[in-house]
């Protein structure tokens, strides 16, 4: 796959039902209150959510940036955490607008967040200043992988050695809280064209937000060393055919290395060769800012 196709189906604003129009308009309006002094990239979101009693309510949020970049919160998570705090944990519809250049979609972190509260929720990504949208579902944001599948028993020596190394890293993971061990290897070249492998394992933290994914350990090490060209990420997963096999945050970090790096997924019996576009369609990257 060599195109970054938009998510969902193009639908004109006037063809949307009144509730969807309300969500889109609300997201557009709240984007004007975005606190984005660093990026100048205002985003607004509106979420229709339901509580345990079956009551529904619309929650909205904008992106709020911070001088310490990791403390920034995106519009979708701003709206979503407000909904959850009020007991509305079943999301039915999500509208998102990137006002500066309409047509954007949620980042990997927001995709991971949204999938927790309703894969079948309607997704409305505003694509232009007339408020027309790409209409899909939250489940489309982090799909299952597609690509070439090979049994581990049939792998050539080089690939078999990679698998062995990944399993060693997985076994050394520090995961007392998540109970989700993972191993990762990130291969990339430097400016001189020399390739090198960087290893990572999952590391939990008692402050859950301080945990770091195996893939991110490897990718940050590679960037520190200056190896950012022609990237290939290999990682252990529970099932190569599962929905959302790699966390959205990891995919967003990988996106910084290019629009479509190659990815290898490995479970107990198979290896699946895929790429970033298939796991993070219509992604948000550095060229968007």
Query: In the CATH hierarchy, what is the superfamily of the largest domain?
Result: Cytidine Deaminase, domain 2
Q: Provide mean pLDDT, rounded.
A: 95
Largest beta sheet: strand ordering: 1-6-5-4-2-3
Global geometry: globular
Would you give the CATH topology of the largest domain?
A: Cytidine Deaminase, domain 2
Helices and strands, in order, run as EHEEHEHEEEHEEHEHEEH
List low-pLDDT spans. Answer: none
Oligomer: single chain
Second-tier CATH architecture of the largest domain: 3-Layer(aba) Sandwich
Short description:
The chain is of the alpha+beta class. Helix content is 25%, strand content 27%.
SSE layout and pairing:
Layout: E1 9-11, H1 18-30, E2 43-51, E3 56-62, H2 75-85, E4 88-98, H3 108-115, E5 122-126, E6 133-137, E7 148-151, H4 157-171, E8 183-189, E9 195-201, H5 214-225, E10 229-236, H6 248-255, E11 262-266, E12 270-275, H7 276-279
Parallel strand pairs: 4-5, 10-11
Antiparallel strand pairs: 1-6, 2-3, 2-4, 5-6, 7-12, 8-9, 8-10, 11-12
Helix pairs in contact: 3-6
